[in-house]
Structure of YcxB family protein:
Amino acid sequence: MNEEMLFKGVYTLSLKEYRAFTLYHQRNQLRFYPVFIFLVFSVTVLFSGGHISDWAYFVPIGVGVAVAVSLLSYLSVIFRTHRVYKSNKIIQKDQTIELSERGLHLTSVNSTSWIEWTDVYKAVESKSQYLIYISKNQAVVVPKEKVDHIKLSAVLQTFMDAKKLRIS
């Protein structure tokens, strides 16, 4: 490439950072799952002959069931994340991201990708990382503590459509 790189970051993604990405990506599912479980429990009790006067007993049970199932779901996500990270040797190696006026240049041990700004699905800032989504469910994870995140944010804000940005 014969163009000026406006940002370059080289980093290795840790299990903790990959877990943070997975939990962020699935946050809505984990947030609304307890409500859904409680509603299903309530409807089941109502249609199986439970009387409205018995709700004082059923509500705490429903809340307990929703919390227990949600906790199991959360632990399942943690376990799957650990298993995926340990089996994917590529994400455990150095990643390089370079940003220019044309787009993103991503390099890892086995691959190189060029993505134009118009092809970026969205960019999101979480507490500890930037997530540059290249599709609805696939993102480049850039840990804030391992790169110049202020410069990264500025480049993203300069070249990306404001409707695709969720950064502060």
